[in-house]
Amino acid sequence: MDISSTGLRVLRQIAESGSFTAAAIRLGYTQSAVSRQAASLERSAGTALFERRPDGVRLTPAGLTLLRHARTILDCLTTAERDLTGTVSRTELVRLGLFLSAGAALLPLSLTRLAATDPQITVTTTEGTTPSLIRALRAGSIDLAVLTSRPPHRPLDGESPRLHVETVADTELVVAVSSTGEFAGRTTVHVDELVDAPWIATPASNAEPLLGVWPGLPGRPDIVHCARDWLTKLQLVAGGFGVTTVPSRLSPVLPPGVSLLHVEGAPPEIRRVLVARLPGRPTPAITAATRAIASTT
Fold it and tell me: Rounded to an integer, what distance in angstroms lies between the CA atom of residue 187 and that of residue 111?
């Protein structure tokens, strides 16, 4: 096979972003250039590497096989570049991905503990939804991911081999409300009282779930504000502009003016916090980072 490093980088980015268009944007290429690279890869491999689906692009089994080798090749090229330029790192790098509310609840304490026990380890972080972080893990763009799942906690994706997953904690989903608004002074709210509430939610797409609305809410929610940033959402709640759901683990970092209510009249919504990585023997740095994250519970 005659495959270039550019082609392998395109393969990895398509696997991570889930579409040719998003891959082109992240790589700074035109979509037609990405499509040409994808077609060239398939010609060289002699088989289909990409499956076009209504919700985006996924790698075929052959594509996943090539991706596994692409991760190794691209990592070796990065190491070779450092050796040739004399920029050998004195620290061990862990690229960590976190779901959108995990940063405030877990990240500062985890990094503080890791710095105390393993100061030679450097952690870089990126946020994303659980589906996008799983793609990034499979693509080799991150080494470790803090993810969330809901019962019945099925495997995170259908690809093989399965990711190595460790449970960090279970946390209850609650509703964040203004401390001086309609629900002031309360600790619980019935789900029927939330039917007509104004909701603050994270935007959804075909491939990503809508975050911020109670999952068992009867009827169609009235979404008045859409925001991805948790501080924005909670400040809107504090100002009385709507309500949103949050994991109860966020209670220590709530801004003033926000209260948390448990929901009655509906089954409890439990979210599991997980740490995931690719299968195989982890590096000592990944093991240390996983241990620091688990120790925050």
Answer: 32
- Token pair 């996008």 is found at 132
Contact 200, 212 (CB under 8 A): yes
| DSSP string for 251-278 | GGGPPTTEEEEEEESS---EEEEEEEE-
Round to whole Å and give the CA distance between 203 and 211: 7
Distance of alpha carbon 217 from alpha carbon 175, whole angstroms: 12
Q: What is the pLDDT of residues 98-150, one digit of tens each?
A: 987 788 878 888 999 999 999 999 999 998 888 889 989 988 889 999 998 88
- Residue 280: what residue type? G
Nearest CA to 191 among 171, 218, 222, 210?
218
Residue 181 gets which letter from DSSP? S
Question: 29 near 13, Cβ under 8 Å?
Answer: no
Beta bridge partners of 10: none
What are the pLDDT digits (tens) for 168-196?
A: 999 999 999 999 989 999 999 999 999 99
Among 142, 102, 160, which Cα is nearest to 16's? 142
What lies within 8 Å, CB to CB, of 131 at 6+ separation is 207, 208
pTM (two decimals) = 0.73
| Residue 88 one-letter amino acid | V
Distance CA 276, CA 54 (A): 27
Instruction: Give the whole-angstrom CA distance, residue 73 versus residue 62.
Output: 17
